[in-house]
Amino acid sequence: MGSEGIANVLEVNQVSKLYENARGVRQIDFSMERGEIVGFLGPNGAGKTTTMRMITGYLNPTSGQILVDGLSMADHPQKARRKIGYLPETPPLYPEMTIVSYLKFVADLRDIPHREQKQRIGEAVEKLGLQGREKQIIRSLSKGYKQRVGLAQAILHKPDLLVLDEPTSGLDPKQIIEIRQLIRELGENHTVLLSTHILPEVNAICNRVLIINQGQVVLDAKPDAIAHSLEQSFEVSLEVRGPSGVVAAELEKLPGVESVRELARAGTEATDGLPVPGDEPSVSEAGAGSADAGEAHAEAAGAAAMPGGETVRLLVSAKDKTDIRDALFYRLAELRYPILEMRKEVLSLEDVFLKLTTDEPAAGPGAEGVSADSGAEAGDETEVKTGE
Amino acid sequence: MNRMLALCRKELQLYFLSPTAYVAFAFYFLVTGLFFSLDFLSSQVVDVRPMFSNLMLIYLFTVPLLTMRLISDELRQGTDELLLTSPATLWEIVFGKYLAAMTLQFLLVAGALLYPLIMSKYGTLDQPVLWLSYLALFLLGSAMMAVGLFASSLSAHQMVAGIIGFALLLALWLIDWLGQSVFLSGKDWFSKFSITARTINFQKGVLNLSDVVFYLTLIVVFLVLSVQSLERKRWK
Questions:
Q1: Which residues of A touch B14 (CB under 8 A)?
Q2: Number of Cβ pairs closer than 8 Å across A and B?
Q3: What stretches of chain B show up as alpha helix (H) in DSSP?
Q4: Which domains are present in chain A?
């Protein structure tokens, strides 16, 4: 990736911003290659906005260095700022102006030569689907369209680096999908750093994730690599038709199996009442996850209650992360207990996020879908930085 | 330079797209017109000086109205993030805005020339007194605009910025009077810093360089303060 560029588009070296109330960011350190779409992820107040404001030159860091395309933000602020397009959390719009007069102003501010302005504005308007609204007053636009004008403003001068602070916050689901699509398209020609606290967004758009918590980068990896890196064990969720106690006991005898836990049987929940793990919510935000899991569980329970004998739902953990699915299949086939469903458990980004950003083991309230025994320690295969 | 003019253009656009400028202009011309009519009808003397002190007094209320939103609105709307992350320097931003305010002020001063024009129908005006008085008004207004611009950089709330601006201007207005009542001997010294006392020479038809320098210095000081006030936000 990014072999065509000599220098990284963005380098953030040991950057800190200290506030009196001890919040802020401490020793943030990362770099971005040309063409990357990096998701900057963290709970509210983790320092995402502060970091982005330092990168764009709105705030000066207390210490550390920011290089944009090799130019120091401290030594060549004007040149460095010219290379960045920035969409703050609230799009910086003048509600009284029309879209075109606003973009004209930004074009002047961004040193776009007069003869090119018309063409550039036309391009931006077209790219963001604002045609026909050019003369509309910004105040009268919907939130989604305001966000589009904000994006148009950010890409007008063809920046090397596009910095977007929570580009989809406050939009309705349809607008969110549209804006994400736009960002994906922009990512084809730009290097993008975007912040969000919506996890599926990262899966949907980014090819790299930086998780930040309490002012520090705690994880830097590809979205799909994250879950694997943090798994401590190989777990399989099974639904089997057969007598509950017998099935569990038989499976525990298998050589590769570490433990078997019964989650539910014959339509009634097991006493520990653990919800069924998995079922990553697709568009919904993190908080909606519990509802989804609950529904999934209800469905599973319904399925289990179907006629044809007792069914049981099990969570089987393997020793040493070995794949035990073949062994499970053959053993159950031998015993003539049909497998109704078998699924390898994958940690969702939500689980990873909660593991990294909360101190307690992830089985606490709100950490649905994470079994207690897998939350104790964080794996360190990738660059997982321990707190402090 | 281009960026500064772009900012100035944008400010002028916003002035006339929002009711601020219209309200300030209406207030200014209504009140000055009223004072002028009353004065001129009662005294029936062809002289700009009696009218002049009224004009200055109205400025005390008009200028904060015109300057209060200049920077505070950007802070409130978050558009300062656009300006401060653009290639424009703080000087270009502040000066561009100041230029827009000056353009409005020029309209106010030019509009007030209507009154001497009416007077000249009824007698001969003392030309040096007339033009120097108007120069004094323009310089005074320019200095007041700089003060108002600085006040606007202190708060994200227009009204707060307006009140701070008004308070600062009132202090500069009354400084000789305050000095006189607090320190009996310091009257001369304090009156050197009064923005109103400095107009007296002009009104006599005397162009004193030190008076011009005084106003220019005041402008520079408050523009520098505005830049510093914005610069400070980068370090917050």
A1: 94, 96-97
A2: 77
A3: 2-17, 19-43, 49-67, 69-77, 80-84, 90-111, 114-120, 127-152, 158-173, 175-182, 187-191, 200-203, 209-235
A4: 10-83+159-228 (3.40.50.300), 233-345 (no CATH)
